Amino acid sequence: MIWDVQGAATAEELWKMALRYLAVELAAERAAVLLSCHGPGQPPYELVAHRQLNPDRLWDGSQLDPNLLKRVQDAGEGLTTQGWGRGVACCPMGDSSGAIGLVYVDRPLSEDEFSNQEVEQLQTFLATVCERWRAFQAPIAKPAPPAVSPLRGTEGSAPAVSPLRGTEGGAPAVSPLRGTEGG
Protein backbone atom coordinates (compact mmCIF):
# COMPACT_ATOMS: atom_id res chain seq x y z
CA MET A 1 0.00 0.00 0.00
CA ILE A 2 1.30 3.46 -0.89
CA TRP A 3 1.17 6.08 1.85
CA ASP A 4 1.01 9.43 0.07
CA VAL A 5 0.75 11.80 3.02
CA GLN A 6 1.59 14.70 0.69
CA GLY A 7 -1.96 14.29 -0.61
CA ALA A 8 -3.50 14.99 2.81
CA ALA A 9 -5.73 18.07 2.52
CA THR A 10 -5.85 18.85 6.26
CA ALA A 11 -3.81 18.14 9.37
CA GLU A 12 -6.65 15.94 10.65
CA GLU A 13 -6.51 13.86 7.49
CA LEU A 14 -2.73 13.62 7.87
CA TRP A 15 -3.03 12.20 11.42
CA LYS A 16 -5.69 9.70 10.27
CA MET A 17 -3.36 8.52 7.49
CA ALA A 18 -0.55 8.17 10.01
CA LEU A 19 -2.72 6.01 12.29
CA ARG A 20 -3.73 3.76 9.38
CA TYR A 21 -0.06 3.38 8.47
CA LEU A 22 0.83 2.41 12.03
CA ALA A 23 -1.96 -0.16 12.17
CA VAL A 24 -1.32 -1.70 8.76
CA GLU A 25 2.44 -1.50 8.23
CA LEU A 26 3.55 -2.02 11.84
CA ALA A 27 0.61 -4.07 13.11
CA ALA A 28 0.33 -1.62 16.00
CA GLU A 29 -2.64 -2.42 18.18
CA ARG A 30 -2.35 0.87 20.07
CA ALA A 31 -0.82 4.13 18.92
CA ALA A 32 -0.45 7.76 19.94
CA VAL A 33 0.63 10.71 17.80
CA LEU A 34 1.92 13.42 20.12
CA LEU A 35 2.87 16.99 19.20
CA SER A 36 5.32 18.89 21.40
CA CYS A 37 3.83 21.64 23.56
CA HIS A 38 5.87 24.62 24.63
CA GLY A 39 3.54 26.60 26.87
CA PRO A 40 3.90 26.94 30.63
CA GLY A 41 1.67 24.66 32.65
CA GLN A 42 0.92 22.39 29.68
CA PRO A 43 1.74 18.69 29.47
CA PRO A 44 4.85 18.11 27.35
CA TYR A 45 2.76 16.76 24.46
CA GLU A 46 -0.64 17.22 22.90
CA LEU A 47 -2.38 14.03 21.79
CA VAL A 48 -3.51 14.74 18.21
CA ALA A 49 -4.46 11.19 17.18
CA HIS A 50 -4.70 7.82 18.88
CA ARG A 51 -5.75 4.23 18.38
CA GLN A 52 -7.12 2.04 21.20
CA LEU A 53 -5.89 4.38 23.97
CA ASN A 54 -7.92 6.25 26.55
CA PRO A 55 -6.93 9.93 26.23
CA ASP A 56 -8.09 10.62 29.80
CA ARG A 57 -5.58 8.11 31.17
CA LEU A 58 -2.71 8.78 28.80
CA TRP A 59 -0.43 10.53 31.30
CA ASP A 60 -1.09 8.41 34.42
CA GLY A 61 1.38 5.70 33.36
CA SER A 62 -1.23 2.99 32.89
CA GLN A 63 -1.15 3.01 29.08
CA LEU A 64 2.29 4.21 28.14
CA ASP A 65 5.47 5.00 30.01
CA PRO A 66 6.09 8.77 30.26
CA ASN A 67 9.74 7.99 31.06
CA LEU A 68 10.05 6.25 27.68
CA LEU A 69 8.77 9.39 25.97
CA LYS A 70 11.38 11.45 27.81
CA ARG A 71 14.17 9.01 26.88
CA VAL A 72 13.19 9.14 23.20
CA GLN A 73 12.96 12.92 23.28
CA ASP A 74 16.41 13.18 24.90
CA ALA A 75 18.00 10.57 22.60
CA GLY A 76 16.43 12.00 19.45
CA GLU A 77 16.02 8.52 18.00
CA GLY A 78 13.58 5.64 18.11
CA LEU A 79 13.66 3.09 20.91
CA THR A 80 12.07 -0.31 21.38
CA THR A 81 11.28 -2.01 24.65
CA GLN A 82 8.81 -4.31 26.39
CA GLY A 83 6.22 -3.44 28.98
CA TRP A 84 2.87 -4.71 30.21
CA GLY A 85 3.29 -7.82 28.02
CA ARG A 86 3.63 -5.66 24.93
CA GLY A 87 6.31 -4.85 22.40
CA VAL A 88 6.74 -1.07 22.35
CA ALA A 89 8.34 1.35 19.88
CA CYS A 90 8.59 5.09 20.29
CA CYS A 91 10.12 7.47 17.73
CA PRO A 92 10.59 11.20 17.38
CA MET A 93 8.47 12.70 14.64
CA GLY A 94 10.78 15.07 12.83
CA ASP A 95 12.84 15.99 9.84
CA SER A 96 16.05 17.93 9.20
CA SER A 97 14.43 21.01 10.80
CA GLY A 98 13.89 19.21 14.12
CA ALA A 99 11.32 17.16 15.98
CA ILE A 100 7.71 18.26 16.30
CA GLY A 101 6.63 15.42 18.55
CA LEU A 102 6.67 11.68 19.16
CA VAL A 103 4.84 8.58 17.98
CA TYR A 104 4.21 5.71 20.38
CA VAL A 105 3.07 2.26 19.19
CA ASP A 106 2.67 -1.10 20.85
CA ARG A 107 1.34 -4.58 20.18
CA PRO A 108 1.06 -7.80 22.18
CA LEU A 109 4.35 -9.64 22.62
CA SER A 110 2.62 -12.68 21.15
CA GLU A 111 2.81 -10.80 17.83
CA ASP A 112 6.55 -10.12 18.24
CA GLU A 113 8.63 -7.15 19.29
CA PHE A 114 9.33 -4.27 16.93
CA SER A 115 12.46 -4.79 14.86
CA ASN A 116 15.15 -2.20 14.15
CA GLN A 117 14.05 -2.32 10.51
CA GLU A 118 10.48 -1.42 11.50
CA VAL A 119 11.74 1.48 13.60
CA GLU A 120 13.86 2.78 10.71
CA GLN A 121 10.86 2.44 8.37
CA LEU A 122 8.72 4.32 10.90
CA GLN A 123 11.26 7.15 11.22
CA THR A 124 11.41 7.55 7.43
CA PHE A 125 7.61 7.71 7.25
CA LEU A 126 7.45 10.18 10.15
CA ALA A 127 9.91 12.53 8.41
CA THR A 128 7.46 12.73 5.50
CA VAL A 129 4.54 13.28 7.90
CA CYS A 130 6.48 16.05 9.64
CA GLU A 131 7.27 17.75 6.33
CA ARG A 132 3.59 17.73 5.36
CA TRP A 133 2.50 19.00 8.79
CA ARG A 134 4.94 21.93 8.49
CA ALA A 135 3.29 22.84 5.17
CA PHE A 136 -0.04 23.19 7.02
CA GLN A 137 1.65 25.47 9.57
CA ALA A 138 3.19 27.86 7.01
CA PRO A 139 1.62 31.32 7.07
CA ILE A 140 -0.69 32.08 4.20
CA ALA A 141 0.32 35.17 2.22
CA LYS A 142 -2.37 37.85 2.23
CA PRO A 143 -2.94 39.93 -0.90
CA ALA A 144 -1.68 43.50 -0.77
CA PRO A 145 -4.37 46.18 -0.28
CA PRO A 146 -5.17 48.42 -3.29
CA ALA A 147 -2.98 51.50 -3.64
CA VAL A 148 -4.90 54.52 -2.27
CA SER A 149 -3.51 57.92 -1.43
CA PRO A 150 -4.11 58.40 2.30
CA LEU A 151 -4.83 62.17 2.03
CA ARG A 152 -6.61 62.59 -1.25
CA GLY A 153 -8.93 59.59 -1.60
CA THR A 154 -9.47 57.88 -4.91
CA GLU A 155 -8.45 59.98 -7.91
CA GLY A 156 -11.30 61.15 -10.14
CA SER A 157 -14.05 60.87 -7.53
CA ALA A 158 -15.35 63.37 -4.95
CA PRO A 159 -13.38 66.58 -4.32
CA ALA A 160 -10.30 66.21 -2.17
CA VAL A 161 -10.73 67.04 1.52
CA SER A 162 -8.13 69.10 3.32
CA PRO A 163 -7.63 67.74 6.84
CA LEU A 164 -7.45 71.33 8.23
CA ARG A 165 -9.96 73.32 6.19
CA GLY A 166 -13.02 71.12 5.50
CA THR A 167 -14.48 70.64 2.03
CA GLU A 168 -12.93 72.92 -0.54
CA GLY A 169 -15.34 74.77 -2.78
CA GLY A 170 -18.39 73.64 -0.81
CA ALA A 171 -19.64 74.60 2.66
CA PRO A 172 -17.73 77.17 4.69
CA ALA A 173 -14.52 75.95 6.30
CA VAL A 174 -14.76 75.05 9.98
CA SER A 175 -12.03 76.03 12.42
CA PRO A 176 -11.56 73.32 15.04
CA LEU A 177 -11.30 76.00 17.78
CA ARG A 178 -13.72 78.76 16.84
CA GLY A 179 -16.76 77.28 15.09
CA THR A 180 -17.91 78.38 11.62
CA GLU A 181 -15.93 81.09 9.88
CA GLY A 182 -17.66 83.81 7.90
CA GLY A 183 -21.12 82.93 8.91
Topology, element by element:
Layout: H1 11-25, E1 30-36, E2 45-51, H2 66-75, E3 79-83, E4 86-95, E5 98-108, H3 116-137, E6 161-162, E7 166-167, E8 174-175, E9 179-180
Antiparallel strand pairs: 1-2, 1-5, 3-4, 4-5, 6-7, 8-9
Helix pairs in contact: 1-3
Describe the structure.
The protein is α+β, with helices and mostly antiparallel strands and 183 residues long. It has 3 helices and 9 strands. A 5-stranded antiparallel beta sheet has the order 2-1-5-4-3, sandwiched between helices. Helix 1 runs antiparallel to helix 3. The model has no long low-confidence stretch (mean pLDDT 80).
Question: Quick recap of the structure?
Answer:
With 183 residues, the protein is of the alpha+beta class.
How big is the Rg? Answer: 29 Å
What's the average pLDDT? 80
- The sequence of SSEs as H and E is HEEHEEEHEEEE
What's the total number of strands?
9
Structural class, by secondary structure, is: alpha+beta
